[in-house]
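Q: Could you write out the predicted structure for this multi-component system? I'm mainly interested in how the pieces pack against one another.
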Amino acid sequence: MTRPTSRDVASAAGVSQATVSLVLGGKWRGRVSERTAGLVREAAAELGYRPNLAARNLRLGSTRTALLVVPALTSEFFARVYTGAARVASDHGFGVVLYPSPEGIGPARDPFPSARAALDGVIASSMAADALDAIGGAELPLVMLDSDPADGRAAARVNLAMADGVRQVAEHLLGLGHRRFLHFAADVDSWTFDVRAEALAAVVPPHAELRTVRAPLSVPDARTAMEAALAAPGERPTAVVCDDDLLAAGACKAARRLGLRVPEDLSVTGFDDLALATAVEPELTTVRLPAEQVGEQGMSALLAVLDGSGWTAPDIPVDLVVRGSTAPPPAA
Amino acid sequence: MTRPTSRDVASAAGVSQATVSLVLGGKWRGRVSERTAGLVREAAAELGYRPNLAARNLRLGSTRTALLVVPALTSEFFARVYTGAARVASDHGFGVVLYPSPEGIGPARDPFPSARAALDGVIASSMAADALDAIGGAELPLVMLDSDPADGRAAARVNLAMADGVRQVAEHLLGLGHRRFLHFAADVDSWTFDVRAEALAAVVPPHAELRTVRAPLSVPDARTAMEAALAAPGERPTAVVCDDDLLAAGACKAARRLGLRVPEDLSVTGFDDLALATAVEPELTTVRLPAEQVGEQGMSALLAVLDGSGWTAPDIPVDLVVRGSTAPPPAA
DNA sequence: CGCGTCTAGTTATACGTATTACCCCGGCGG
DNA sequence: CCGCCGGGGTAATACGTATAACTAGACGCG
C-alpha cells in the first residue's frame, strides 16, 4: 500500500519509466507520440501518481523553495508580504516557507531542521537580521526587504519609499498648522526606522519643534511610554508622528487617559495602515504600505537572481491615507 | 565551489563514506573507534559539511516535516498556534510549514508545489476545510484543530473548551443583571462557531431574550452589521456576546456611532483575547484562548500518530478575562 | 540501393544519503 | 594449528527521479 512511483505508471501504461518522466515533465514535444502521452497520463491519473519530491530535488539539485524570514508571524504586514511572495512563487513552480524570528521558540533551537539546507534562496526582512544569522543562509542567494543599501550581503533589494511617506505625513501636519511635533519611534534596531527618523528631521522646518520618544512595538508599551511623555512638563506637542499603527493606537489611548481628545487636542498619525487603523476610534491617519507588492517584488528579485540575471527596481511608493486622527492644532 | 558531500568529508578524514554517515548519524557505538569518529567530526566541521536533505529524505522516505493548514495568515491566533507547533516540532527534529487558505492566492494555484507531497503529516484548523481539500492531503495522517468529533478524517483531534468559554461569558453577564442578549456571530461556516451558538442558547435562561446577528470576521463589516442591528426597532439588547474580538471591536464602534456608551449603555464581550482586545477603548472583556498550547498539542498528537501510538487528551480549558467593556445594564 | 534524417521511444546513469551485508585482522579457546 | 569471535571498518545497494546517450524502424532522396 505504498505510493506509486513513475515506474509503476510506466508498467501500467506499457512504456518505460523515462517516457513517463518525459510526458509528465512536459518535455515530450516531438519525442513521444500523442497517443502514448495520453496513455501515460491516463495511467498516472488512474494510479493517483504524484512525483516524489525528495527524489526530484535530489536529481535537480534544486528544491524550488524560498525561505521568507520575518521578524514576527503575528505581523499583519508580513502576512501580506508572504501572500504576495507566494503568489509569484506559485506562478513559477516555487514554494515559500516562513521562518519567523526565533523569539519565543528559543534562540538555540532551529525551527527548520528539515528545511534549512533544502532551500534555493532567502528573502529576509531587515528587521530580522539576527534570525538571518541564525540560519547561516549566507551561502544562499539573499534578497533583503527594506534594508540599508550599504549592507553588502544582499544580491538584490526591495525597498519602500519610507522617507517619502514620512515626508507626506509631515507636510500634511504642517499644512494643518502644526509646529510642535513628537516623533513616536519604534524601539527596534532597524535601518527602516532610522530612515524615518532622518526623513522627519529633514522635513520639519527649523522654526518648528521636534522631540522623540521611543517604545517597543506593542499597544500597551506604547500607551505607557506616551502617557509619561504627554504628562511631562513643558509645552505639549500638538502632533504625534508614529512609526507604526500600533504605536499610534497606544498614543491615542494615552491621550484619552490624560483627558486629551484626538484629534481636537492632539493629532496622531500612524504608519503601515494595519487593520487596527480602522478598528480604533477615531480611525487613524496613516501611511499605506503596499505589502503584497513588497512580497511580489521580493520573490521576483529572487527568481531573477537565481536565474543569473540582475534585478533592480525603484523604491515602491507609499501613500498617505487621511482619516480622523488629524486636525488643525488647538487655537490656544 | 559546490557544497561538500559526505564523500568529501570521508576522503578528507581518510575513511569511507559509510563511516561518515555512521558517525554523523550517531549510530556508531561499537562500530567505529572513538579516534576515527573524532577525525570525521573534525573534517566535517572543517569543510562546513551539511547533509543534503533531499537525499536523506529520499533514502528515509520521510521528510520530517508537517504542514499546518490555517484559514488566514493574518490571524494572530494561528500565528500563536504555529509558534507552539514549531516549538514541539523542533524538539523532535521536525519542521513545520504553513499553508494558508488559498484565499487571495487564487483557488486554482497551489502555493506548495514543492512541499505538497513532501510531507509526513498535516495539522489543520477546521476553519480551513476547503484548503484542506485542495491539498488532497487525505492520504496523510491528519490532526484537526477544534473540529467536529463526528468528522472521521482526523486521526487525532485537539479541541478547545469553547462551550465552556461561552458559558463563562454568559454567567458573567447574567451575574451583572443582563437579560436581553444579542449573539454577534461570525459569518463563517465552521463547527467551532456552531458550538458557541449552541452553548450560548443552552445557558441563557428561558425568561431571558436572545437574538442573533451575523457578520464576516472584520471590523468594518462588523461595525456596519451591528449599526443596523442596534438601530432596529424594538427593545435594544443590553449585552452583545461576540464570537471574536474583531466583531466586538466593530460592535463597540457601532455603539459609539449611535451615541451609546460602552459599557454603561451596552456591554460587549469578545473572544480570543487578541492584541486588539487591549488596543481599543474600553479594553474588551473577552475569553483567552491558549493558542500556543493548541499548537503544541497538535504537533504532539501528530508525532504520536506517526509513531503509531494513539493520542487523546481532554479539551484545553479557556478563561474569561474581565476588562472594561462589561458592566451592569442601564437602570432603565 | 545506400545514406542521412526524423520519429518514438529505451537504456543507463547520477544525484547524496543510510544501511545491510560483508571483510579483514588480532586474539583466544580448544 | 585451526576455528571462531568481535572490534573496526568498507563495499555495495536502494530510494525515485530527470536526462543524456543511444537505437530501431520508417521514410525521403540522390
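A: Regarding packing and overall arrangement: The radius of gyration of chain A is 26 Å.
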